User: Fold this.
Amino acid sequence: MVIEQISVFVENKQGALSEVLEVLAEGKIDLRAISIADTSDFGILRMIVPDPDKTLALLKAKGITASKTEVTGCKLPDEPGALYRVLKTLEGISVEYIYAFLTRRDEDAYVIIRVEDNERAQEVLRAAGHTIIGSEDVYSL
Amino acid sequence: MNAYWNPEIETMSRDALTTLQDRRLRTALNHAYTNCKPYRAKMEAAGILPGDINGVEDLWKLPMTHKSDLRDSYPYGMFAVPMGDVVRIHASSGTTGKQTVVGYTAQDIAVWGECMARCLTMAGATKDDIVHVSYGYGLFTGGLGGHIGGETIGAATIPASTGNTKRQLQMFSDFGSTVLLCTPSYAMHLGDAVLEEGIRDQLKLRIGLFGAEPWTEEMRGEIESRLGVRAHDIYGLSEVMGPGVSCDCPERKGLHVMEDHFLVEIVDPHTGKPLPDGVPGELVFTCVTKEALPLIRYNTRDICTIDRSPCACGRNLTRMGKITGRTDDMLIIRGVNVFPSQVESVLLGVAGVAPYYRLVVDRINNLDALEIQVEMTEGLFSDEERRIESTVRRIEKDVLSMLGISAKITLVSHGTIERFEGKAKRVLDRRTP
Assistant:
């Protein structure tokens, strides 16, 4: 059970992020979650959207470099220490990045985790009693 | 006051000089024809034999030589002496990554020393000077070329090489350097550092010979005021010899070419025909005394003018003006020849990278800076920044090893680089010429 994330290249220049967001706005893409990785030389916009394939096609049609990546979603109580417990569970598994988001729908928090091997990470998380969420769960939030 | 290293040659009448050139040219052509296959093939293809050339007035009949000829014969194909007679190898970057390799016999090195000695003397240096050479020592001809000049005039010569500006300043004040040789941009950089440290009063620098890259009269003024030197322009290229092919005298109205060794012509870039004095065109050299690597009508692709009138300094040697541009796409960055095609071959060697790139050359803190803008592609893109960064590092490393100079790689959005009739506009040079 994975979530498809869209990652977009953002050049390090003024207005570059706006250009991407403008395309998404025109396409009426509802952003469920976003995260921006920022290096000194470029940025990567990562986002969870209801229709990843449509979003990807839309971006590519505008000449924007983007890709689809499978990530793991995990639901956790919105309380201190919750994220720590998730990461503690994943000890020994290399986590590339994580980002979290909240919804209006429920009291819980959600975290997106990027690992090399989703299956293994999810096994470990489940074994420790964490709730894994999939595309349907997150898109309907 | 005008001093000459070799007054007989430097003040020789034009007639006597022409006679000397005619004789040397005939010898040089025989040598090239007999001992260097590519020249023989070129002359035969043009239907010319060395005997058809009586002297300088027939020079235009000979086929031209280009950098590509040297590249095609990499590394030693145009050497005209046995390797046992070669005592030195230098090299500069070529268009495709293969270097242009040049060789010298002991006699060639002696000529180099003689020419450099004339330049230093022309600029006012004597054996009592302390000559500080801040050109890079290595395959680049600047360092060892400057060095042999200093030693030939009998001056204490410091092989400082380039870089480590703090140490350079330390040597200026501790060693009492009086003559500085380096690229003009490095001279500016050193000048800024001197101002910053506030040590201008401790310096004994009085003369500078700067070359290996084009510079302006404005820059000359800036360097002079920063370092307290009288700045001279010195020209050369490894194919011909290295620094010392020409240099400006105290009159500073052009650079005197060492014409007893190097014949100079200006030709029309389109027709290849010689142009009258004062008309800008491509600068072409013929080496009439070179042993290891004969050079017949070598087209430098540099654009300038020549002036054969006598100079107030007493020399009758032809003067060339400042280089105002090039007729190919070669860039000179920090004294290093850079062709966009070299960058292209590096990029094509990295998986996922498209050949859409642009070279942006700028002068930052008086040092040339090269930025290579590379378009992001799907093959290069990743959702993980470290993967992209590792590709960027890889490109930087490959560029450094290919060009010999470092470049900053900037990733730009797909479609940013202008496509110009299918070919991208590859260079943006922001430096003033």
Q: What stands out?
A: DSSP finds eleven helices and 23 strands in chain B.
